[in-house]
Records
---
Amino acid sequence: MTATSSRRPRVLVAPDKFKGTLDAAGVAAAVRQGIVRVVPDADVSCLPVADGGDGTLAAAVAAGFEPVPVEVAGPTGGPVLTAFARRGTVAVIEMADACGLARLPGGVPAPLTASSRGLGDVLVAALDAGCRELVVGIGGSASTDGGAGMLSALGARALGAGGAPLAEGGGALADVRSLDLSGLHPAVAEASIVVACDVDNPLTGSTGAARVYGPQKGADTADVVLLDEALGRWADVVARTTDADRRDVPGGGAAGGVGFAAVAVLDAELRPGIELMLDLLRFDEVVAGGDLVVTGEGSLDAQSLHGKAPVGVAARARQRGIPVVAVCGRRLLTDEQLQGAGIGGAYALLDLEPDVEVCLRSPGPLLARLGEQIAYDRLV
């Protein structure tokens, strides 16, 4: 697209959040502002995206879903105000906002007692509201409880010796003896549940939920051993109850075992997060006929190549032959790696401002300047 073209250039700005500094909608708005400064007649649309972790709820709302507030149990049991996003009978639910790491009181980890109950609370609210297509993002979890808390909120009962209800948290699963599903929310049987999951870890073992992700949630060496053994006992109980052993399902270890419980008990489907979200946000419809896509996230690095939002966006755009560039806070990928991911170029805040603190404190104006550069390089 050049300045002499007769048609207005069409640009889609579809970034993920810059974690800890600016949400995806803010990133998109700043980039758009810079582009239209240079090309005032450009048709620039914004579509904030997410990959199933924090920011998933906000991306759905930005795409036109209606937020439905709900109070739930946070990761350590205290009340938390969150929401699900609704469009018709479809509900988008974000575990991170309900009972994730960011909801830990004072940021203090609770590796043995943190619970996924808050996620179940949101599922109940969505089901009670008549939603029957549930899209669940489980990134950013604080718990390693095998999804037991989530199931308890939905009416299941994890029981210990003598039929006593278990306490919350993964540590308590060391004492689990049985699982009663007779009180499970009746609408679960009518619902289609799809879980955004970007890992292939099983529930237990050397690559399982406790050993790989437990330390990130505050678990020390002894905690990890306890949690892995407890999850194994939980898997035994669930297998006896459902007549199927799902502990080795790829992705079962996601969110401290929520992936396992969702598949084994709720008959959920696990799908890559960014693919699921792009379908939900109708990305293919929005991008059709475009001349350029701008995506991005805070750090373009090796992790970006493994199912993160910018690479997912680039793959979809590439299917339609639309060029893609990315904005980021910092760039740690080579040109060859970017090209291999379908990204034609990357524009980093640190290229404009070498002071990291300034980039973190005021990313908006810098992103607008990157938008200007993109317009000069790609549209003029």
---
Amino acid sequence: MTFLYEPKAFIDGRWVDAADGLRFAVRDPADDSLVDEIADCGAEEADAAIAAASAALPSWRARTAADRAQLLHRWHALVIENIGALAKLLTREMGKPLGEAAAEIRYGASFIQWFAEEARRAYGETIPSPWPSARIVTSRQPVGVVAAITPWNFPVAMVTRKAAPALAAGCTMVLKPSEDTPLSSLALAELARRAGIPAGVFNVVPTRRAALVGDRLLDSPDVRKISFTGSTETGRKLLARAAATVKRASMELGGNAPFIVFDDADLEAAVDGAMASKYRNAGQTCVCANRFLVQDGIHDRFVARLIERTRQLKVGPGMAADTTIGPLVNQRAVEKVEALLSASVEAGAQIALGGARHAQGELFFEPTVVTGVTTAMPLWSDEVFGPVASILRFGTEDEAVALANATPFGLAAYFYTADLGRAWRVGEALEFGMVGINEGVLSTEVAPFGGVKQSGYGREGSSHGLDEYLDVKYMLMGGVARKISAA
């Protein structure tokens, strides 16, 4: 494998060890083998990264949008050029099948390319003035230093969705990646360096001491924005901490996505969408289908077909060519799936397929289908984050919408129907930031990604993603009217 990083922090364009010499292990969830040992950063490294980002900010934001765009295009090209090595690295530290890892690299790179182009479109405006002697103009300027905290399930895409728009807008960044998957972030930093992105613009602080480093980022008055992807519980804590310095915030938090199948749906299309939405990344995605609501008339046929297709999934190490379901990321993840499943079965749910750890190893879980689920069960109310499809039967359209909306979360939702009127009615009635209609996968760099309710706020991707890193400045220009002198 081509090595794309050093096992250290990347601060101010240099690879640095933790001042206290601490390191931590990154292990392959497929077999618990050691992938690498890297610097376990603390307060000193966090402060150094903030200082580096602050020092780099004036010259970076002073560059033209075209200059920043050119560097981002180089970064994108290097990511694509190294897709094979990056995919192998991602699979080893996270566990997802190699094909999915390569797809994530391409998806993550698409944000770098998209925002390289959007950098040129941070337009201002002129506003008709109420005063004849004045003119009103607005401009959009970079927020400043950004702190980003990213999860383990998409260790490349979750970084580029934040870093690309931030850098395109003229901001600098300090990134704290997940302790489970820091290597992909370090590789991205090395490729950014090779692309010519200046020292201090993009800094990566790996750590197992997340609270310590996070507190330094949140407490610093030099950090003007926090962008976080993770659980709602953690997001609440970060928001409370960020309030002390009134930071701008973007929060992409937990989900509990409904997947509704109406009687008039195309059965095969619905099952295709269900497989893609539920089992991608072994169910470890924030937008994956978590609750299946299937109407009475199609319920039995849908369940039978879903079980048939789920049986065909191949569980194994992500590096194996035929694997379609890799391991879960760690022991806590497996134990959570087991606990939710056990409690729901005790309450009356029936396991139609799977339901236990797989013979491949401790972190592998069988692709599972559960029927007879009710709204009182943990599988209904909690985000499973595992390969478990939980199915509830419903009768009417109004019932389906009410059941789908009966959650504090509002990230993604999906439904299948052949009725155009229903497509509009249900799409507008669902209280979610993103809705897939007759589609099971909806993520793309050209559309706004984000949720409502306790799934957070702010958007990533699209032109709206650039806005998250820009402040609007209003300038009133007086003294414009020419004085007329007496003849």
